[in-house]
Amino acid sequence: MSRIGVFVCHCGENISRTVDVEKVAAEAARIPGVAYATDYKYMCSDPGQGLLKKAVAEHKLDGIVVAACSPRMHEKTFRNAAKSAGLNPFLCEMANIREHCSWVHEDREEATEKASAIVEMMVARVKKDRKLVPITVPVTKRALVIGGGIAGIQAALDIADAGHRVVLVEREPSIGGHMAQLSETFPTLDCSQCIMTPKMVDVANHPNITLHTYSEIEAVEGYIGNFQITVRKKARSVIEEKCTGCGVCSAKCPQKKIPNTFDKNLGFRPAIYVPFPQAVPNTPVIDREHCTRFINGKCGVCQKVCGPGAIDYEQEDRLIVEPVGAIVVATGFELYSISEKPKGSPIKGYGEFGHGTIPDVIDGLTFERLASASGPTGGKIIRPSDGKEPKQVVFVQCVGSRAREKGISYCSKICCMYTAKHTMLYKHKVHDGQAYVFFMDARTPGKSYDEFWRRAIEEEEAVYIRGMVSRLYQKGDKVVVMGSDVHVGVQVEIEADLVVLATAVQPRAGADTLAQKLGISYDSYHFYSEAHAKLKPVECATAGIYLAGACQGPKDIPDTVSQASAAAAKVMTLFARDELEREPIVAKVNERNCVACLYCKKVCPYGAVEEKEIRDRQGNLIRVVAYVNPGVCGGCGTCQASCPSKSVELDGYTDEQIMAMIETL
Amino acid sequence: MTNSAQTIDPALYAAVTDAVRAEARKVLESGAVAAVVGWQAGRRAGTAMPTIVTDPAKAADLIFSPACVNNLALYLTKAKKEVRGKGKIAIVAKGCDLKALVGLMGENQLKREELHIIGVVCAGVQGAAADRSLPLSEATIAGKCRECTVHTPENTDVTVGTLTELPHFTPTESAELARLEAMTPAERWSFWKEHFSRCIRCYACRQVCPFCYCEQCLCDRNRPQAVETTPRPAGNMAWHIVRAMHLAGRCAGCAECERACPMDIPLNLLNRKMARELKELYGHEAGFKPKEKGPLAEYREDDDQSFIK
Q1: Backbone angles phi, psi at A51, to 5 degrees
Q2: Global pTM exceeds 0.90
Q3: Deepest of A426, A448, A488, A584, by most Cβ within 10 A of its Cβ?
């Protein structure tokens, strides 16, 4: 007969408010095999755990059921307590009477009855629990960082400085991300490139960092400590090892009228180009879509002028496999564009703002390029339509963000501050100009942030109008801004020379596809989900994968850098050990029963199932069966559900246990 | 237009028999295969039974006739230790049997390169209650053969026989299926309840099915017991639901289960219904190509979810 201890938690009042915990404990004491049952106000507290440990010794318990919250919350806590009391931790299970019972019911009597039923089921399960030993797997001390913006750069540098190898993969031809496009940064107005480029160079020169630019993640296999990453190095058409970065190819390229995406299409670039002068690596790439050579084969100038002979028109995409132990995802954001409805985006279009057809209506990032000393105008603020200096500029905040009716309910977080910065940059360059800002409310929490915003109004004379903009339209060479001023309660109409929209921060297009490759979860906007909003803000629910920067949610530079360093610290914690312990909740095949139909292999989402040949001592094949690699198995139980002969079972969730649980009902 | 007087010429089967014997002798003599799985004449006149021939001299025992009802694929799974250990095997296969072979290849039970498939052109086989002395006609032909689309098997190593023009037979399977689908859910439930209540749990349907190749059936397990083993209504229902679900997307319709059932439960009707569901929901038809994954082992975003209510 089992000797099981049942501990019913009040969870303060979270459980006891709706469930009669004393009664649940008393009922549990009557279940055959239960040697001890009690209730306590906070089982997870020190005295609560002490109670459990004491009971194990006093009542010689061989199994434990803690009726409390979700196992996701405290299973580890109680298993550790059981372990320190000398019990195998996997003989301790949780009966969730909080999320599954007290929180979702109102009727006290019925909830109490249900709680007792849940406890009885878990007692039945614990009776058939086996002692399990954690699985140890080796750790590859090499990290992958996806995304070479400030988040990826910071994470890569921190991990590399700690002495571990890092593979940094960037989709664009250069690292730098959005920060390389910014002019000056709030709240100190230091030049973005001046603080960014040294870090980029550090990445390029770091002996521990392998940089793959113009590359994408093709496939991800494996698990924490043992990932196999296939990186697609897109054909650059330039041999990186040979190129000296002299720039002659770009200078001589006859095709010069390609809109420069780095400058938000304000200027032009040749077909063979580096995105910006400080690019890392300083190796150009041929834009095959626009290159004459690739369109009709009738050029080849760059190859002729290239001294080192680095141009290779025949170059093909290469697939490189990188073994890594941890992954930092730092894929960043993009700004919502009012000109089109982004594919897959929940946002509806902005027809009332002209759908992007009015040339002097631009977004915040375009303004950054206008204001940037290294930008297409050399830092001179002019309007895109006729190159004139705008004397009245209207900034509109919350375009897309906080607009439930448009499809996005979140706040993009950075726009209040960067719009305040824009008004200052504008005032510094156009002294007789006037900036207006339409805003819902200013959100300036952060060190020196509110002071910065106040300065924009009080010293730089920006006029802040609390209200929304209902329409923008072209009238002559002006853009008419129709809005409301809710403080005064009047409709406002401003004839602006330039309108700057603070459009919503969104995850990168394709964020969902990458998440599917990585096996991490994302929200309805495709921002990546952290394991716990408060206590695990940089970890993914998938072990060994960490988040940094705006791919998780809108973030400014200080927050992004902090999170990147936090993610790096998590990677270093993982790399501090040579071996990793994994929960032994994995599937095992009953080899006497398995007929190797390999249905399990077809359904396994982790690719953990292999074919195994059983041979006798002479080497004759006796039979073929399925084999589950315990290092790869994620313990989801899909194989168990699909096996026609029930020859594969998940430890701790065997059919026998599940049936025993059902039978108590 | 149905013509009950019209019969299938027995000469078609005689020609196939000669060709099967010749092919079997050839592959056995050359040593290309170790054994040939086929049919031989049964003890009673007009009957046939499965046989395994290893001696080239015995190749002359092989026959093909309307009495060759058995799906021989069975002998490559259930009895695999005895048969498959011998080396490369030749198997005589009708179009419908071939579908089972293809399915078994997709489930890792057979390897194409280890088989020599002698496909036979088949005009039909006898129904369970047919008078063995009569040639095949509307009165004697099996239900599955009335709507057969695979008279000539494809992707075999060799196919023997020539198909002649066949009489038109009244489709019975699709008529039954239509009748079943026209029922209300309550009527359908009581229809099956009545049929399954007669089940004596002899498991002949399981033993004769090439796809029921598990060495220990889940329904025989007792720790934990998933299905009650005594022939009582609840256990019977559970068994037949498990059988139907496990065959969904796999059963190619050889109808051996229905033929073997001593209680005349219309098992193939249930199999056909499941097959139709799979075709309508996922465009899947069993037995044509060894697929990577079956529709029930694969999730696609565009899968029909309308059945989730």
Answers
A1: -60, -45
A2: no
A3: A426
pLDDT at A569 over 50: yes
Q: What are phi and psi of B109, to 5 degrees?
A: -95, -25
CA distances from A181 to A84, A157, A375, A557 (A): 55, 21, 8, 13
Average pLDDT of span A633-644: 91
For chain B, the average pLDDT equals: 89
> So where are chain B's domains?
3-160, 172-297
Q: Does A613 touch chain B (CB under 8 A)?
A: no
How high is the pLDDT of residue A408?
87
Burial grade of A558 (CB within 10 A; 0-12, 13-18, 19 or more) = middle
| Helix (H), strand (E), coil (C) string for A69-103 | CCHHHHHHHHHHHHHHCCCCHHHEEEEECHHHHHC
Interatomic CA distance for residues A416 and A464, integer angstroms: 11
Q: Helix-strand-coil percent breakdown of chain B, rounded to 5?
A: 40, 10, 50
Numbered residues of chain B with Cβ closer than 8 Å to any chain A Cβ: 107-109, 213-218, 221, 223-226, 246, 292-294, 297-298
Chain B residues with CB inside 8 Å of A644's CB?
A: 214, 218, 246
Per CATH, the architecture of A141-225+321-331+515-578 is what? 3-Layer(bba) Sandwich (3.50)
The verdict on a CB contact (< 8 Å) between A646 and B213 is no
Determine the CATH number of domain A4-128. Answer: 3.40.50
- Other CB atoms within 10 A of residue A283 CB: 21
- Pick the residue from chain A with its C-alpha nearest to B104: A597
User: Which ipTM value was assigned to this complex?
Assistant: 0.87
Do A141-225+321-331+515-578 and A333-506 have matching folds?
yes
Using pLDDT thresholds of 50, 70 and 90, give the confidence band for residue B2: very low
Average pLDDT, chain A: 94
